[in-house]
Sequence to fold (76 residues):
Amino acid sequence: DFIPTYRTNDKHATFSGKRIKRGMYRSAKGIFINADVNAAANILRKAFPNAWTNGIEGLGVKQLASVLTPLTLIVR
Fold:
């Protein structure tokens, strides 16, 4: 989704995913993601628009599951 920049008279933004409960977010594709990880990824996208250019492999994360439901997130 496009990440909006809020100003005084902006309309309410709508997003394709949904927060299921505290700490859990479901994407439009039905993938469950830890809400904190999702928020951090969105902040990263907003601050560095080309951060995901190389895909998740560019982050050095070994498995996608470790990002979707992290116990610990190891980035090398």
